[in-house]
Amino acid sequence: VADFASFLEFVYTARVEVEEDRVQRMLEIAEKLKCLDLSETCFQLKRQMLESVLLELQNFSESQNSEEESAARPGAVPAAKAERDPPDCSGASPEGPAAKAKEKA
């Protein structure tokens, strides 16, 4: 009943509010009644929900991998803490350009 009420709401207002667990059912109703706009809306919503779940799984997997790598190398410093300024390979003196100007004078 709630699904059909949501369907009617969409037909009359072009808006619909559907809980995540009812999106598949709304998609089936829309396809059965050949309401292409609602079908597309439900399909896009399902796609967004799946992308969100996949992103969460990817983040979880990456966090597990980094924890496993840290556990495998107990003395290793995490990459974020090991970052330093890149070495200066330009041949400039440690004092900088002002010191070079003084050396030439």
From TrEMBL:
Gene3D superfamilies in alphabetical order: Potassium Channel Kv1.1, Chain A
Spans annotated as Disordered: 61-105
Ranges where the BTB domain occurs: 2-45
Highest taxon above the source species: Eukaryota
Compositional bias segments (type: Low complexity): 90-99
Pfam families on file: BTB
Database matches in InterPro entries: BTB/POZ_dom, SKP1/BTB/POZ_sf
Protein name: GZF1 protein
Source species of the chain: Spizella passerina (Chipping sparrow)
Source species taxonomy: Eukaryota, Metazoa, Chordata, Craniata, Vertebrata
